[in-house]
């Protein structure tokens, strides 16, 4: 590395002569083309670096700066991915907190994404705004049922106090309202909505979509009596399209299947029947 100790005042002919000697065959290979970056700072304003630049061994100072700038930009691109690639994972609050870090392209994309997220949030809030059973009277019927809203399912239970099956269905309604908060579950004393509505038709459930009746369940026989479970009621309502159940099959087996299974099952013999026959 004796070249590093050369005097800065070396003349150009002497430097060129040295470069010629370096190219001779009897000079070791490692010395024929020495790495200029090991010989000092390539950015330094020295006469030696000027000679190397003229010989094309070192790039010009302008080219070197451009290369360094490109390398820095590439490093930033690799180490810090664009916000456009990550903003989809941000919440609305995070988008606001990082707004100063967005470039012009990011800001346009983020603005569109923010509007999309806001619309989705509003739709979710609108769908999940219920979650409990609403008690109404006849004067509320038009507002709460007929004008409930576009695309909104409404399930109305007409009941009367003192009827056990009505009380059971009201209990199941509370559980289903929490499970399906996008569906409007309401209940009303029968005579407040329909004057002189007969008790023999209770309990009664009406299913509405945008004010139109889509299904109706009238009378105790439809519900199977006091053995009605919440899953069975959920399945029955899902058949009308009002709710989307996760149940894979009807939790209550059809009566025909129950009767058939009872016929096919052998009748157990009574104890001591053999001795009695003897």
TrEMBL record:
<keyword id="KW-0256">Endoplasmic reticulum</keyword>
<dbReference type="GO" id="GO:0006915">
    <property type="term" value="P:apoptotic process"/>
</dbReference>
<comment type="subunit">
    <text>Interacts (via thioredoxin fold region) with KDR/VEGFR2 (via juxtamembrane domain). Forms ternary complexes with the chaperonin CCT complex and actin substrate, leading to inhibition of actin folding. Interacts with XIAP (via BIR 3 and RING domain). Interacts with HSP90AA1 and HSP90AB1.</text>
</comment>
<dbReference type="GO" id="GO:0048471">
    <property type="term" value="C:perinuclear region of cytoplasm"/>
</dbReference>
<dbReference type="GO" id="GO:0001525">
    <property type="term" value="P:angiogenesis"/>
</dbReference>
<dbReference type="GO" id="GO:0005783">
    <property type="term" value="C:endoplasmic reticulum"/>
</dbReference>
<dbReference type="Pfam" id="PF02114">
    <property type="entry name" value="Phosducin"/>
</dbReference>
<keyword id="KW-0963">Cytoplasm</keyword>
<keyword id="KW-0143">Chaperone</keyword>
<dbReference type="GO" id="GO:0044183">
    <property type="term" value="F:protein folding chaperone"/>
</dbReference>
<dbReference type="GO" id="GO:0043184">
    <property type="term" value="F:vascular endothelial growth factor receptor 2 binding"/>
</dbReference>
<keyword id="KW-0597">Phosphoprotein</keyword>
<keyword id="KW-0007">Acetylation</keyword>
<keyword id="KW-0037">Angiogenesis</keyword>
<keyword id="KW-0053">Apoptosis</keyword>
<dbReference type="InterPro" id="IPR051498">
    <property type="entry name" value="Phosducin-like_chap/apop_reg"/>
</dbReference>
<dbReference type="InterPro" id="IPR024253">
    <property type="entry name" value="Phosducin_thioredoxin-like_dom"/>
</dbReference>
<dbReference type="GO" id="GO:0010628">
    <property type="term" value="P:positive regulation of gene expression"/>
</dbReference>
<comment type="similarity">
    <text>Belongs to the phosducin family.</text>
</comment>
<protein>
    <recommendedName>
        <fullName>Phosducin-like protein 3</fullName>
    </recommendedName>
</protein>
<comment type="function">
    <text>Acts as a chaperone for the angiogenic VEGF receptor KDR/VEGFR2, increasing its abundance by inhibiting its ubiquitination and degradation. Inhibits the folding activity of the chaperonin-containing T-complex (CCT) which leads to inhibition of cytoskeletal actin folding. Acts as a chaperone during heat shock alongside HSP90 and HSP40/70 chaperone complexes. Modulates the activation of caspases during apoptosis.</text>
</comment>
<feature type="domain" description="Phosducin">
    <location>
        <begin position="68"/>
        <end position="219"/>
    </location>
</feature>
<dbReference type="InterPro" id="IPR036249">
    <property type="entry name" value="Thioredoxin-like_sf"/>
</dbReference>
């Amino acid at each position: 590395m004796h070249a590093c100790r050369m005097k800065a005042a070396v003349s150009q002919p002497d430097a060129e002569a040295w470069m010629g000697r370096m190219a001779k065959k009897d000079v070791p290979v490692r010395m024929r083309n020495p790495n200029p970056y090991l010989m000092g700072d390539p950015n330094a304003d020295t006469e030696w670096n000027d000679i190397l630049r003229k010989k094309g061994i070192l790039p010009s100072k302008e080219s070197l700066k451009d290369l360094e700038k490109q390398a820095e930009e590439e490093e930033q691109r690799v180490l810090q991915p664009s916000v456009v690639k990550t903003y989809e994972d941000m919440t609305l609050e995070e988008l606001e907190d990082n707004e100063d870090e967005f470039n012009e392209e990011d800001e346009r994309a983020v603005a569109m994404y923010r509007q999309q997220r806001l619309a989705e949030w509003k739709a979710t809030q609108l769908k999940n705004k219920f979650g409990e059973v609403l008690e109404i009277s006849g004067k509320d019927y038009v507002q709460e049922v007929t004008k409930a809203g576009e695309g909104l399912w409404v399930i109305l239970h007409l009941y009367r106090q003192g009827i056990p099956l009505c009380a059971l269905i009201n209990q199941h309604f509370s559980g289903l309202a929490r499970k399906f908060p996008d569906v409007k579950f309401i209940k009303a004393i029968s005579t407040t909505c329909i004057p002189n509505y007969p008790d023999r038709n209770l309990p009664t459930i009406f299913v509405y979509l945008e004010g139109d009746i889509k299904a109706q369940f009238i009378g105790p026989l439809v519900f199977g009596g006091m053995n009605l479970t919440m899953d069975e009621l959920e399945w029955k309502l899902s058949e009308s399209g009002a709710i989307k159940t996760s149940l894979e099959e009807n939790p209550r087996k059809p009566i025909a299947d129950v009767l058939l299974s009872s016929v096919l099952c052998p009748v157990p013999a009574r104890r001591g029947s053999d001795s009695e026959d003897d």
